[in-house]
Write a structure and sequence with these properties.
Blueprint: H1 3-25, H2 30-51, H3 72-88, H4 91-119, H5 123-129, H6 150-155, H7 159-178
Helix pairs in contact: 1-4, 2-3, 2-7, 3-4, 3-7
Length: 182
């Protein structure tokens, strides 16, 4: 059994299960919710911009955020998770997110890299120029191509990340206002 394939299949259902755990355990304060929401929305923006540059399985994305990191969508997800961890003010949530990302995203990224190596001749050179996850400070020099495409953003339904993030923020606001979990 290839864990990378299993991880790819279970990441969304596991995310929903973790969201339930998160909402039950979170103990936000107004300050942590505000700061965590700002961080999470930065992650949503990273994902949004990245989704407007990627033509999955058609061509190698090297423009926009892909000129800084090979995995801006996952980087955006990590930033969202960091924001939620801060908003929740619970160490077990932060630890759970760390474990989930290590167990799920590392094998998924490796599997995607194998696919990209096999399907795109320029991928090895791109890997030499652009880091896997933590972004460069300046864009890679050999990145060419188009800009952000709203059509690609819509095609990839990235608006769901915004909707989900806003729903979690709203749930945390409701939890604070209603005094649940105190």
């Amino acid at each position: 059994m290839d864990w990378g394939r299993v991880a790819k299949r279970i990441r969304v259902p596991l995310g929903f299960l973790f969201a339930a755990f998160f909402l039950m355990r979170a103990q936000p304060q107004w300050w942590s919710l505000a700061a965590g929401s700002v961080i999470a929305l930065v992650g949503v923006a990273i994902r949004a911009v990245a989704s407007g540059h990627v033509k999955k399985n058609e061509e190698l994305a090297t423009t926009g955020p892909y000129a800084y990191t090979r995995n801006p969508l996952y980087l955006g997800s990590i930033v969202i998770a960091m924001g939620f961890a801060l908003a929740a003010l619970r160490w077990e949530i932060a630890l759970g997110l760390l474990i989930l990302f290590a167990a799920i995203y590392i094998p998924v990224i490796r599997g995607e890299e194998q696919f990209l190596h096999a399907h795109f001749a320029g991928y090895a050179e791109y890997c030499r120029q652009v880091p896997r996850l933590l972004p460069r400070l300046t864009p890679a020099t050999r990145t060419q191509g188009g800009g952000f495409s709203p059509a690609l953003y819509s095609k990839h339904r990235e608006y769901n990340a915004l909707a989900g993030t806003l729903a979690v923020i709203a749930a945390l606001v409701l939890k604070l206002v209603m005094g649940w979990g105190r």
